[in-house]
Amino acid sequence: MGSLPLLLFLLVAAAAPFSDGCGITVYWGQNGFEGTLQEACATNNYKYVAVAFLTTFGYGQTPVLNLAGHCDPPSGTCTKFASEISFCQSQGIKVLLSLGGAIGNYGISSPEDAQQVAAYLYDSYLSGFGGPLGNAALDGVDFDIEYPISTLHWDDLARAIAAYSTPGRKIYLSAAPQCIIPDRNLDVAIKTGLFDYVWVQFYNNPPCDYSGGAASLIKSWNDWSSLLPAGNELFLGLPASPLAAGSGYITPEQLKSEILPVIRQSANYGGVMLWDRYYDVTNNYSPQIVGYVCPLEVGKFEDFVISQVL
């Protein structure tokens, strides 16, 4: 029988080249049939959850949170999620508020507007002082900017939000650009280097998603990997079901055999992002890949480790 120290050494060796933050990101909030936020976090399949979406903000507008059939923000029923957010965070899961989405009325008109929106986000979602989601203090903000009033000033908003970080508490930033380079909305913002996580949408864009085969997708991944500033983690954004996007779906087996073994070699590899929780539930996607996304669980180590224990 192999010794426990040897087993621990093997597990540490397997994990060493990868980020501690490696994992699966999932978007939650756009389908009332996807289950609760706490149910999503209780699966232990996710490292990050993006609560989607704040669909109206900027240009002096009153911000609007849209969580589909989950709750009604104006009547205060979304505050019930404060305890669920706390549960997720207690499991080591970072919960971020996602801005934008494919349908909305949002934009940033000026650096001053960026400051005002950032102050609203901090006071209402990041501070724990109370807001549409109750007294939860979310871990950060996600930029899913797809339907712009203007493509300008997203870098100003990123800087304004990041300024709320303190030595004792970091406010995390993530971005979800399209896979076409440069992203028409977020290119300048991403180049600031302020985004801790960049989960690129490798779907709905056949020139750079799996529609063109593994080689085409991997080339696009490598282009993004080279583009990101140092310290930013890159995630492979995928539809969790063939019904979740117009193109780019990869079966779990194809992902595990053709794609993950290659992209995991990137120094800035962070994991996989899935759109979205509803499609993940209906297609049972994340349970099939979670053991292969991150290094500690990579299958190629399993047989050897087991052989040392038995």
Automatic annotation (TrEMBL):
Endpoints of the signal sequence: 1-21
Its EC number(s): 3.2.1.14
Record keywords: Carbohydrate metabolism, Chitin degradation, Disulfide bond, Glycosidase, Hydrolase, Polysaccharide degradation, Signal
GO BP field: chitin catabolic process; polysaccharide catabolic process
CDD domains reported for this sequence: GH18_hevamine_XipI_class_III
Reaction(s) catalysed by this chain's protein: Random endo-hydrolysis of N-acetyl-beta-D-glucosaminide (1->4)-beta-linkages in chitin and chitodextrins
Domain of life: Eukaryota
PROSITE patterns: GH18_1, GH18_2
Cellular component aspect of the GO annotation: extracellular region
Domain GH18, residue spans: 22-292
Example of a GO MF term: endochitinase activity
Summary of the function given for this chain in its UniProt record: This protein functions as a defense against chitin containing fungal pathogens.
Family: Belongs to the glycosyl hydrolase 18 family.
Protein name, per record: chitinase
Organism: Salvia divinorum (Maria pastora)
